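[Backbone geometry]
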Amino acid sequence: MKTTSVRPAGRSSTRTLRTRSWWMNYSVSVEELRRLVDEGVRRELEALGARLAEFRCAGVDKLVLYAKMRLAIALLAGRNVADSLDGELVESLGLTRAARTPPPPAAELFQIDEGVWRRLAKTRYTTSRSLLTESSSRRGILTYIWMRKTGILRRHPNGSLIVDRRELSRHPAGSERELGLGDIGRFLAEVPSSLWSKVITEELLGNAGLGDLITLAERYHGFDQRVDERLASEVRRRIAKGWVPSPEEARRLEGVIAKALKGLKTTVPPHLLPFIDSVEDYVKGREGELAGEIERLPLRERWEVLRSLRRRIRDPGFFKHLNPISLAELRSLGSVDRELASRVMLGQAIGSYLEYLLTRDPSFQAYAVHIAERIDAGALEPRHRPLLESILNGDEKKMLFLLGREAGFDALELLSVKLGEEYSRSGGLDPAVVKRAIAIGMRLLNYMRGGRGFTWRRRKTSVRGRLEVRGTLYKWVRLDNEAVFKRRERVQRVIGVVDVSGSMARFAVWSMLSIAAVFPVVSHIVLFSEKPHVYRSPFKKTSLVLARFLEKLYTEGFKGYTNISEALRRAGELASRADSKTILVFSDLKQTVPDTEPWLVARWLVEKGLRVILVVPRGTESATVERYRGAGCDIVVVENPEDIPNILKRRINLKNRV
């Protein structure tokens, strides 16, 4: 008989209950953990939503990767660690934040002065001097400016002020109002200058934007000592913090900037050297470095700086570091040593001989030879003596070859200057002169190419892509060892926009030669001064586009008209037709033709999904740069025009945008 062992029912049921209890507790813990993780993810995603909105023109793959990495760091290490690493994460992924300019704060909040209000309520006509006296308060002066702004006080043809008492009654005394710095700068001139110091305070200047500060300094410096001291102190403070006034800003601040730089121990750009009080001590020991920086300036600006420094720097060693074309405009050579005088005269002879090559007027050649005969060849450097011999012998080819190798960009810019002088003399340009200028410019570019290594021919548009593994294996198993690649056509995604105005001559030449190196990704080129001229990217040779570039530079560059807005609009139209996503602009951002503000046009392009990259020379006005940055443009400030090719290849990475 078979016996069966029976386990006690109580022990089995107890174990089952324990298992169920453990499983229920585990399930509850997992659910709680999931809930906590989901809650953390939700909070982080809400915070990420605002952050992702800060990026513009970024690929979806990069945004997804940024979101995942940011979320992982925040969940594992905490939000504080994620915030501290956010900048490095953004930089590593190549994302760009949309720059936002905060709205300008109100310059002044004040209450309408009761005394001024009562006097105006009793009269129909008045004058500023009867309203404002030496005892007037700051509040009373601001009340006057505000009433001029709103039209309560209107100017009569006889010079008096008409009071609009109906409008005045709508603004009772003591009510709070606000004024912008632009309004103060506009109407403060009607107030006696002895009262200006009550309005232009250190606090007001400290809160002022750069453009408003320059406007106040330009209009109100030189009339009141206290105002002058405050303006100089504020400009000095901003320069010490890193602000570098552009040449145009320096000219507008001429009366203030000399006081601001007095005793200030900081490095200044070359165009500010004439404003330094002890400039001879400043340049001592740095002659070669400063001379190199001066030679990067536009030619006319360079001559202006050197003429000013010639009167203040007596040491000829400083000027010996400059090339003859830079020294060509120095005068009063009687007190100059023989070596420096020979360099200056060589520069003058080069300029006169280039003018002969343009006009074919023998008087210019005779004058160039006359100057060259007075030069002591022994006082020149050995590399400059062949240039002197070519002028004396009338060897045009050799002279242009030596200029192209030694100072090609200066020679191209000098050609533009000489064409401007010819235009001023004759009131127009002979087509034959323009044709000669283009021919000379192309020869200089050709000679420069030998020493610079610029790309002259366009590369093939069809490139070999990634290895196609499936197709390669398919051939390999069939004893065909040929690799298969995914072939693709190089997409032309870039539109180049180049400013050919006179002030941009040197910068524009570098820009065009740099664009020529990346022609495979350039669909169109827009050359503009007053009007834009569109050219398709060349298929084989770049010489035709460079010749057209020189034509526009030499025929329109010296007229002083620049319309950036129209050029940007034209580039936007081309982008929509050519399916281009990037507009690359080379300009100093000086709009001289009445039109829509160019940064507003740039903002419109950015809102359409285009990437607008502005490559600007050092010295471009800071306020203008900030307007474009606030419009969503990428700004690249170039210290040296010779760095442009490297910027295009590495920083902007145009060669890989295919």
In short: The CA atoms of residues 140 and 592 lie 38 Å apart.
